[in-house]
Design goal:
This protein is mostly helical and 180 residues long. Helix content is 77%, strand content 0%. Helix 5 packs antiparallel against helix 6. It starts with 9 loop residues before the first helix and ends with a helix.
């Protein structure tokens, strides 16, 4: 059985450089509870690393595939954390369950594609599309006013969609590299 590498890697350094300022800003601006801050740190630095290590390092030596998978995992963990720890993008609203539908699109795509780069690319494009559909559906079904305003919610959703799209493009690159 292969063990997880515990040495300090570029993944840890990037995670700390990117996430610490974001987490501190969020703590200050959005008045997070300390438990939410701890959960975010654990998910970001621990969970993402474990999933990334277990699934991608064994699967392929292709760097584009590894980056694509890491970006997708980071986006998923951030989305889950925002809904669990902070009360969701739409506040404490049952419409937040749509985000789990978004993640289900990606999960089903990953299962169907068997983690192959071309299929993963399609799955992540579909996930990005579903992410942009979520606020439209919430707005169409008459969800009460968005917690931070309509423009802010759409901007946040587009950030997640860009993360999923970036991952899809990296998977597409991995698929092309593999064919050559």
């Amino acid at each position: 059985m292969q063990t997880i590498n515990t040495r300090l890697s570029p993944w840890h350094i990037v995670a700390v450089i990117v996430l610490v300022p974001l987490l501190l800003t969020a703590l200050a601006l959005w008045h997070w509870k300390p438990g939410a801050f701890v959960l975010a740190s654990v998910l970001a630095l621990g969970g993402a690393r474990v999933v990334y290590e277990l699934l991608t390092m064994k699967k392929m030596g292709n760097r584009a595939y590894q980056l694509a998978f890491g970006l997708a995992v980071a986006a998923v963990l951030l989305l889950v954390w925002m809904n669990v720890a902070v009360g969701g993008i739409l506040g404490d609203n049952p419409a937040n369950m749509m985000y789990f539908g978004v993640l289900l699109v990606g999960l089903m795509g990953a299962i169907i594609s068997r983690l192959q780069p071309k299929g993963m690319s399609n799955a992540l494009f579909a996930t990005a599309f579903a992410m942009m559909l979520a606020p439209l559906v919430a707005w169409a079904i008459g969800t009460p006013a968005f917690a931070n305003g309509l423009a802010a919610v759409f901007a946040l959703h587009s950030c997640f969609a860009w993360l999923f799209t970036g991952s899809a493009l990296l998977f597409r690159r991995a698929a092309h590299t593999r064919q050559e």
